[in-house]
Structure prediction request, 703 residues.
Amino acid sequence: GGGDGGDGIPGGEGSQPLYDIAEDAEEVSDETATPEPEQKQEDAWKELVTPSDEIEAEEGERSGTNRCVEVVVEGWPQVGSLPSETELKDMLNVQEGHIFGYQDIVDDRRLLEKQYDEYIASVQISTEFVDNKSNHQRVRYKFKPYVYSGIDEISIKGATLMPAAAQEAIIKSCLPEDVYKVDIGVMDKVRAKIEKWYQDRGLPFCYVGYFDGMDEGSLRANVIEAKINDVGVKYTKTRLAGNDSDDEVMYSEGEVVPAERIVQSAGFKKGEHYHIDDGYDAMNNIYACGLLDDINIEPEQDLMDPSKINVRIKVEETEPRSMELDLDWSFQMKGPVPQLSRQALIPGGSVEINHGNLFGDSQSLSVSLSSSDWRSPGADLGFQMSYTEPFYAPNTSRNAQVFNTRKMSPVFTSPVENEAPPVFVDRLGAKAWTSHTGGQDNKVEHALIFQQVTTCDENGQTVDKGTKAARGYYAESGPPTTLSGNGKDLSLSYQHFTALDNVQFVNGNQLGTRMLFQVDQGLNPRIPLGKGRSIGLSGGLYNKCQVTFTKFMQMPFLPKLTEDNVWVDRKAPNTLVAHARAGNCIGDMGSYDYFSLGGPYSVRGYGYGELGAARRFLETALEARVPLRNYGLPGIAYAFTEYGSDLGSARGLEGNPTEYYRKPGRGLSYGAGIKLLGACRFEYARDCNAGTGAMFVNWGERF
Prediction:
């Protein structure tokens, strides 16, 4: 259309409206021709436009199709929450270089009026020919933002969580420059400050719903503080689709964990505000049951009522019954080279069988067997049978375990190779405990442990004293291995463990604080009967406690990461880890309960127990981490220094094993390494006591 006098006859010249958007635009027939699909590219549209001097003028007619050669935006307000002019143009149906029709302009008008009705009072769309030969046109969008006069106050309504002082501060900071005159810039500023106050406090579903009161001389921001209304559970299961992708199947009933138990563990309550930490806490509380492989918390605003939030919990259950088999091979090292032998080819490993939802309320039972030599597993067979009730009480599980384990004692080792034969600690017993989770990775456990502890040699024979080589034979004058003196102790103890942990991963690197506290109380009264006899338990009366503090912080003296660095560039922070661990014990305790110093999780650069055994100790460490992902490489590079000391407490231990095996009792180390393949650490550490260094490969996090 378009033409002389606006009568729709082709042939007009100059700037005249092509389309007049009327109120009855909605009545346009669906039969209107749709634009031809064309791919938009930067400046490519110019090649589609035929130069005017190449078009042959015909009197009373124009040539070609209706093609937009320029989009002009006038009066579009530049405020924080609105898109820029460039972003606005990308949203439109009418695009530069493309064919357009009447319906495209109608759709643009509807979109703009609906999406920005709070900011824009009116939208006028007109077109004009760019020459007198073709149908090439310029489309002009003219906006008129709202401007309110006679406004003598700004108020906030519905902000029940915001203190009056905070509301007053926001209002004062948003007063307009022109008295009694408010434009959308002021409205956007009020909205942004109110919503930022809520977002800074972890309340994403509290926001400004709309403004009103302008007719009464007041700009009133109406705040919606949405509350939890409904909590539901959806079960998912990944199914191989056979086309290099997986399908997600959803179903309403769980096989292992009932939906009501998941809702109960999540802790969401109807009528409460949704805090962003509620999602983290819910995931940790639900994961604590140990019967789910994956959890997603999806809070959504109710489409019918914006003041309500519906929370959907999507979970993927573990298999109700499973069996796992692990095999491993151990090689003796001669220098840096592993030695191949017939014994090394015989595998060890473990078998674990799990049964979930044993009695219909998510109870689980697992049994595992392990041995270092499956050819003759009876020599060092270890077993463990565990029973768990994950929903014994709100956020509390009840557990029972029967176990038999064997580990080499780090107390009866010598820095000199082959000087001391190894002593193994065999534990056979039962443990019952409750575990309460609360908040992000916070945990409190209470346990009662009854066990028989036996110290033995490589052949399984009981030993009651440590030994070392002297003049070609082993001297049996070393420190005792048990309190009873016969290589066997019967012990009952209470254990308390508390973890306060808010550490989070930021693109693969940790930030936060972790504090651990553990107390072991020996409950083994023993009454002497005379003539060397006594009655009671031989595990000793003692109190043993240890405290661990670890702080993961962004590297001082370096620029902090911005939100764009974290969320857009996906960069990880350079971090400094400060770590300290201390412990103390009073009373009588066996060698199997001594604190030992040295090792990949104590003081790096030394072997397990190489620095000595202690009644009390102190460890400190500093580690600087640089994530290589910021430079397009995998892994994390780090440098560290560590120090540990027995604080002179080794002399208070029975037989003083530190002095007997000529261990230093303290040590300093430093080094550097790289973490790859998840938690595999390749590191060089220097032993400052001996003045030597070595390469180590360890698995797992140091802190």
User: Anything to note?
Assistant: The CA atoms of residues 179 and 282 lie 49 Å apart. The longest helix spans residues 184-200. The helical segments are 85-91, 102-115, 164-173, 184-200, 259-266, 276-287, 563-567, 657-660.
